[in-house]
Specification:
By secondary structure, the chain is of the alpha/beta class. The chain is built from eight helices and ten strands.
């Protein structure tokens, strides 16, 4: 299966192609340029570097949200456009699940955090379990893992998710762009052992979205390009400001 993946849910812009469990190409930048400037050139450079014919891909995996409202819209519009033009289905990978997939196979709890501002993070809690408990492959030592959602992605105060980590009483790995923003609070409030993911795992990667997207696509979790909509979780700042203004004017 050939999976083309796009992630523009945060500060990182990332595109990748995974084919039958092999990462053929990945292009990731973590800069201040807007995704509208970088995404299409990145896709074109990836296509040229591996001589990819776009009509040969099977599915387009998109980091569906939550995340930056503008970033999600850019990635969504690009994925929808490609899906419509190529007649290919989309697989919607929740952003926090894609981030958690960077740490595939760990025996620790995984807590991705994206800065949602207003002292909140987009976050969730995840763990890995053997896909076939009690069984192994012919190679005996070979085990595959399944991502299990312990707390679905949400927008909450940092203190709330840290409290839940403490309550579960297991070692935690934190990752995501929200970690450096709220690291002081994490250090003050965490009562169980924890660590921070290293740089090459700590941000969104389209390779992870593609790999997890392939798993979900194999399970039939695909939508048409027309059906796809980003997952926002919260109202945009513009919507909140409009509601506040309407409240003040009594309309």
């Amino acid at each position: 299966m050939r999976v083309l993946a796009i992630d523009t849910s945060g500060l990182v812009a990332s595109v990748a192609l995974v084919e039958d469990d092999v990462l053929r190409a990945e292009f990731t930048t973590n800069d201040k340029k807007t995704h509208s400037q970088t995404l299409l050139p990145m896709l074109e450079q990836l296509r040229q570097m591996i001589s990819l014919e776009l009509d040969t891909i099977d599915v387009i995996a998109i980091a569906a949200g939550p995340g930056s409202f503008t970033g999600l819209r850019i990635g969504s519009a690009t994925a929808k456009g490609l899906g419509l033009a190529l007649g290919k289905p989309l697989v919607e990978v929740p952003t926090l699940e894609g981030l958690a997939y960077n740490l595939y196979g760990t025996d620790k709890l995984v807590c991705p955090m994206m800065d949602a501002r207003r002292n909140q993070v987009y976050t969730g809690l995840y763990e890995y379990i053997p896909a076939l408990p009690g069984q192994t492959s012919v190679a005996r030592a070979e085990v595959s893992y399944e991502l299990r959602v312990l707390r679905d992605q949400c927008a909450v105060d940092v203190a709330e998710i840290v409290e839940e980590c403490n309550r579960l009483g297991r070692e935690v790995i934190f990752l995501g762009d929200g970690v450096p923003v709220y690291l002081e609070q994490i250090r003050e409030k965490m009562q169980v052992p924890y660590s921070l993911a290293p740089a090459h795992y700590s941000r969104q990667r389209a390779a992870g979205v593609a790999a997890l997207g392939a798993v979900y696509a194999a399970r039939g979790r695909v939508v048409s390009a027309t059906e796809h909509q980003p997952i926002y979780l919260r109202k945009s700042q513009a919507e909140r400001e409009r509601e506040e203004a309407d409240g003040h004017t009594g309309t």
